[in-house]
């Protein structure tokens, strides 16, 4: 007597009656359809299941490719707020721990050419987006517990504006079967809650029950942006095709008819 594992699946159901092949359907949000970095922006992409047979989706995953079209903006450290060109003198030497926030704000204003005594709107936007140490000289600045004396050549490019592509990636997603009009969630799902983060830490999820899409079904993925991330988004439905179903080119009946 053969003992089957206690999986809850009947032995007859565990062996498919038709041939199956691994297959993924991809939704590529790229070029003009990529993430724009504008919260609230809605984009969608559709794929149509092949006429060969039904597609069973077992899991869904995603990844992103940040846009790197624009070089990072380098920020120096300045004593006085810039009033016009030429720029105000950069601090000649200082230690990292001794830099004041006002000197950094003055450096931001100079870098983006916003000459004003007050914090201007573009300078304020940079402060909201965020700054980071220039990766090329960060180790030098942090040596000796941030107490190493830095010269003007280092201080003139000590910081960078955080690139849009380095922003956290957050979006809502909805999966829709256009043929039946069925949505597979009660409301749009936050990517981190449903898929994880795109650095490889839980980058996909298994469906509680595999979803079967008939041949020629149109599947739509709708995305609502929540973050300022700019770049490509790639979503894949991972599963398998079932070949040989009724009314498909791979059905046994049609194959016999062709051989005749």
Summarize the structure.
This protein is an alpha+beta fold. It has helices at residues 11-14, 101-111, 121-129, 138-146, 152-155, 191-194, 252-259, and strands at residues 20-29, 35-36, 42-48, 53-66, 74-75, 93-95, 131-133, 149-151, 159-161, 171-177, 182-183, 189-190, 204-213, 218-225, 230-243. It is 19% helix and 35% strand.
Keywords:
alpha+beta, 5-stranded antiparallel beta sheet, 260 residues, 7 helices
Would you mind describing this structure in some detail?
With 260 residues, this protein is an alpha+beta fold. The protein folds into 2 domains: 11-68 and 167-259, Jelly Rolls, CATH 2.60.120; 74-162, no CATH class. It contains 7 helices and 15 strands. The strands form 4 sheets. Strands 1, 2, 4, 13 and 15 form a 5-stranded antiparallel beta sheet that branches. Strand 10 (171-177) and strand 11 (182-183) form a beta hairpin. It is elongated, with a radius of gyration of 28 Å. The two termini are 42 Å apart. Mean pLDDT is 81; it is low at 1-16.
Topology:
Elements: H1 11-14, E1 20-29, E2 35-36, E3 42-48, E4 53-66, E5 74-75, E6 93-95, H2 101-111, H3 121-129, E7 131-133, H4 138-146, E8 149-151, H5 152-155, E9 159-161, E10 171-177, E11 182-183, E12 189-190, H6 191-194, E13 204-213, E14 218-225, E15 230-243, H7 252-259
Antiparallel strand pairs: 1-15, 2-15, 3-14, 4-13, 4-15, 5-9, 6-8, 7-9, 10-11, 10-12, 10-14
């Amino acid at each position: 007597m053969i003992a089957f594992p206690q999986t809850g699946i009947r032995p007859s159901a565990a062996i498919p009656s038709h041939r199956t092949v691994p297959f993924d359907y991809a939704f590529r949000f790229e070029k003009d359809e990529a993430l724009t970095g504008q919260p609230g922006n809605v984009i969608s992409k559709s794929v149509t299941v092949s006429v060969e047979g039904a597609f069973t989706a077992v899991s869904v995953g995603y990844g992103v490719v940040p846009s790197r079209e624009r070089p990072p903006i380098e920020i120096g450290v300045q004593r006085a707020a810039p009033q016009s060109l030429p720029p105000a003198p950069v601090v000649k030497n200082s230690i990292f721990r001794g830099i004041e926030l006002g000197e950094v704000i003055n450096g931001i204003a100079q870098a983006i050419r916003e000459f004003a005594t007050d914090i201007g709107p573009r300078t304020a936007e940079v402060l909201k987006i965020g700054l980071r140490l220039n990766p090329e000289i960060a180790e030098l600045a942090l040596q000796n517990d941030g107490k190493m004396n830095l010269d003007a050549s280092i201080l003139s490019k000590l910081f960078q504006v955080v690139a849009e592509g380095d922003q956290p990636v957050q979006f809502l997603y909805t999966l829709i079967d256009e043929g039946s009009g069925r949505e597979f969630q009660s409301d749009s799902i936050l990517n981190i809650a449903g898929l994880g983060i795109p650095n490889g830490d839980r980058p996909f999820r298994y469906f509680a029950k595999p979803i079967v899409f008939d041949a020629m079904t149109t599947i739509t993925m709708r995305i609502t942006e929540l973050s300022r991330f700019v770049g490509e988004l790639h979503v894949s439905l991972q599963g398998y095709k079932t070949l040989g179903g009724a009314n498909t080119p791979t059905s046994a009946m049609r194959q016999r008819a062709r051989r005749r």
